[in-house]
Amino acid sequence: MNEAEILERVREIFQDNFDIEPSRVKPEAHLFEELDLDSIDAVDLAIKLQEMTGRRIKPEEFKSVRTVSDVISAVESLLATQA
């Protein structure tokens, strides 16, 4: 899965779970300030990413996630550990 495909899946997750318009989910968008996620939403997002990748996200790794780009990087590293 390449970066564009991951972004597309992340946009679907945001739309389906948080009612956020896909056009707002840009790599530079800040999860908490621009997309209005809260800490519970962040946990839900982590669970959805785990379902998407089939890999467990370590909480300490997800704490540093602040932007959509960070989410994409986290998914890429999860997928890389599968290979």
TrEMBL record:
Q: Which residues form the Carrier domain?
A: 4-79
Where in the cell?
Cytoplasm
Alphabetized InterPro entries for the sequence: ACP, ACP-like_sf, PP-bd_ACP
MF (Gene Ontology): acyl binding; acyl carrier activity
Keyword annotations for this protein, in alphabetical order, are:
Cytoplasm, Fatty acid biosynthesis, Fatty acid metabolism, Lipid biosynthesis, Lipid metabolism, Phosphopantetheine, Phosphoprotein
Give the metabolic or biological pathway.
Answer: Lipid metabolism; fatty acid biosynthesis
List the PANTHER family hit by this protein, alphabetically.
ACYL CARRIER PROTEIN
Protein name per Swiss-Prot or TrEMBL: Acyl carrier protein
